[in-house]
Fold these 2 entries.
Entry 1:
Amino acid sequence: MPDPAVLLRSATLDGTVTDVLVDAGAVAAIGPHLPAPRGAQVVDLDGRVLLPGLWDAHVHFDQWTLARRRLDLGPARSAAEAVALVAARLRTDPPEPGTVLVGHGFRDALWPDTPHRDLLDRVTGAVPVVLVAADLHCCWLDSAAAARYGMADHPTGLVRERDWMPIMIDVRSTVLDRWCAEAGRAAAARGVVGIVDYEAPWQLDAWAARITGGADALRVVASVWPEALDGSDGPIARGLRSGDVVAGTGGLLTMGPLKVVTDGSLNTRTACCDDPYPGLAGAQARGVLLVAPDELRSLLRRAARHGIGAAVHAIGDRANALVLDTVAALAMTAGPGDAAAPGRRIEHAQLLRDVDPARFAALGVVASVQPAHVLDDRDVADRLWAGRTGRAFPYRTLLDAGVEIVLGSDAPVAPLDPWITIAAAVRRSCDDRPSWHPEQEIPLSVALASSTGPDGPVRVGRRADLCVTDLDPAAVPAATLRTMPVAATMLGGSWTHRAGI
Ligand SMILES: [Zn+2]
């Protein structure tokens, strides 16, 4: 049965108080003193601000769901402190026998000591423990976990990049689907109506099952990783193109882009840069390149020929330049089959050569960026990218060059909360320190528009994916933006969150 029409009375929309009628999942009318259709639900917003529902353009949803339930290592300021947190958890809330204790969110780049399996073994005994780095690019195992994952003779227990991927997939819990529904409702309570999910390797079928099972609080765009692109179950064999809506999901699930990870991360000192990291020498002193340019070119071309766009992870300046070179080369050599190449975006774009924002614009590459990383990484960037931070997280430069920006959290690297993202985009400090490179802050209107997803501003005919805030975002300081109270969220005309209205 379709939801009844909803008449939103006294909504502040674009600075004007008006009524908004929602019917059949879409905005049906906007104007003062609209009559309520028979059977309509009438909700008085009492002047609260009506906004487009918010999107998070970069999420690892399973990892986020697990991180919400995991031992939080965020407070650890040393390996010893992380071990103490593990010891405390084992005393108060040990995992069920045969299962792994998973901790999440350590940031060891500035620690005075070094993580090592021996440190964990002193407190963990026979319990397998997997500690996941905040940037998801490595994990720290004790000896029991190392044995479990076939790495009994690993020298340190610190497992990085590709070697860590199979462990990441294994630690997904059997209760994940239930937790995902709960995490989706929590996101809706922050005004979120949609996410782009970069969970590896391809979560489309998992999401279809979750949505039919009741996890219906969010729209999901599900990306595919190279290892799942081919094969009889892959999107190419099934004829799925980016933007295709998956049948049976009420329009909530859409096929997304190909996700390719070309370099590592800043904290792990694996982001691929022109200059070496201080204190590193040898082959990996400038980070790592995980996909060679010619391999990237053939991947993107193959995807495009099958209607699949691309979202390419690039953090260091060299990695970004190589991705732009690749996209430029593809444009030069495009054949008839490539005429309508689907959208391409670079994920993260954290450190850019001065010439590259203009190349994003010229090539139509979208910059998918995560402003909360500025707050989390400013001290690390000051040390590891010293002398280069003027072109780190260069959002205003990208904007002024005419580049389309979309905002995300990279949850679980930062919380799945677009208000934290938006606040960090407009003010690059969340403590009492001055803003970090304030010249790269962007206006609130741009931050909101870059968090709005594919539907754009609230207009008649638009899908009724909406959110209502108790305060006017334009009238509060950034600290209040971070914790913006969200009164209600609506997805396709149905409430997914209501608090106090
Ligand atoms: Zn990510």
Entry 2:
Amino acid sequence: MDEERVAMISGASRGIGAALAEELAAKGWRLSLGMRRPEMPAWADPSRVGVFTYDAADVDAADAWARETLRIFGRIDAVVANAGIMIAKTVIEADDSDMNELLEINVKAPRRLAKSTWQALSASGRGRIVIVASLSGKRVKSAKSGLYAVSKFAAVALAHGLRHAGFDLGIRATAICPGFVATDMARGVTARSDDEMTDPRDLARIISMLIELPNEASVAEFAINCQLEESF
Ligand SMILES: NC(=O)c1ccc[n+]([C@@H]2O[C@H](COP(=O)([O-])OP(=O)(O)OC[C@H]3O[C@@H](n4cnc5c(N)ncnc54)[C@H](OP(=O)(O)O)[C@@H]3O)[C@@H](O)[C@H]2O)c1
């Protein structure tokens, strides 16, 4: 791989984002990690990894982070919109503020991130955008996941919209749709043990493979599950 390629990962402090950062660093990517409280990971080489303040709720954060990334690294080849939240309420229990928060973090922030990096991704000639959506963006599994699913269906649609808008610019966009992954988020909503859920390191290997595929191997959606369901 081109040793100079640069990937931005939001929500890289823990869970899937942290596992992905470590995987991509091992594969030779230079990394711009967006976190609410920036902290250099213990494994990182600070000459190849930068940590930046990124709060998805702040409407100016994506522009600032993209600008800093370009100033430090000079290019952006891949963006992984991973930062996300879960509010375990039914569509009836929830009030507007819950809905707004989910849409802000899970949908509007990833769109802003894509917009802020669009020019740099086009200049790459093989820009990649990964929207970490969910199987909850493909089906509604339970009442309590209903509200979250509304946001993740929108996140999947966002990935498709980006894929269409970017195709002629060499940008490829993918919606990743995992079921339960062994992170704090899933531990908060299921009694499953970590062994019964997808390992975030396996998800990291999948995302790494996807963003390294050539322009002629566009993957619109990628679903992963730890359990058997009718369609996934
Ligand atoms: N775990 C699952 O079962 C599962 C399944 C399907 C999809 N997903 C999706 O995968 C993504 C990553 O989740 P995870 O499982 O790794 O969960 P996690 O362990 O709870 O980590 C969530 C990450 O998102 C960050 N984040 C949350 N709100 C943020 C904000 N306002 N600004 C910036 N960063 C923010 C967190 O940062 P802090 O450390 O600052 O809180 C953390 O780095 C999410 O989009 C989630 O919806 C997860």
